[in-house]
Amino acid sequence: MHALDVLGDPVRRRILELIADGEAPAGDVGRVIQAEFGISQPAVSQHLRVLRESGFVTVRPDGARRLYAVDPAPLAQADAWFDTFRSFWQPKLDALGTELARGRLAQRKATDAEREQNDPSPNGGPTAPVDPPRP
């Protein structure tokens, strides 16, 4: 099965998201998937089997539990396949990044100007003249 066939299923993508940060017991994964997608435990097990057989996840026994973890190799293969098409969207993403950075800079400048307008002294102290001490 091609990596994109495996990743094309939203349940399998969600399973990968759930275990992306580290190992998770099959039972925990199953409970989340059943709640979110309304599918049975055997259906979740089938999705885990597809992920395991296609190499996207590894599984190891831990007593009575089975712990699942992401294997990054198939994801790297999918990423390599996307390289062919990355040129279609990468310039747009780069431009978006530039515009977001410009917006953050403009916001920072506006905030600094507002702060300066409200407190023009360089050390943030009082700006009104202070009465001299009385003898």
Supply the CATH superfamily name of the largest domain.
Answer: Winged helix-like DNA-binding domain superfamily/Winged helix DNA-binding domain
Global morphology: elongated
- Give the tally of β-strands: 3
- Mean pLDDT rating: 89
**Subunit arrangement of the protein:** single chain
Range of helix content: 55-70%
Largest sheet: 3 strands, antiparallel
In CATH terms, what is the fold-level topology of the largest domain? Arc Repressor Mutant, subunit A
What pattern of helices and strands is seen along the backbone?
A: HHEHHEEH
In the CATH hierarchy, the architecture of the largest domain is: Orthogonal Bundle
Radius of gyration: 27 Å
Q: Unreliable segments (pLDDT under 50, ≥5 consecutive)?
A: none
N- to C-terminal separation? 92 Å
CATH class of the largest domain: Mainly Alpha
What would the keywords be for this entry?
135 residues, mainly alpha, Arc Repressor Mutant, subunit A, three-stranded antiparallel sheet, 5 helices, 3 strands, 64% helix, Transcriptional regulator, ArsR family
Which helices and strands, and how do they pair?
Elements: H1 3-7, H2 10-18, E1 24-25, H3 26-37, H4 41-53, E2 57-62, E3 65-70, H5 72-118
Antiparallel strand pairs: 1-3, 2-3
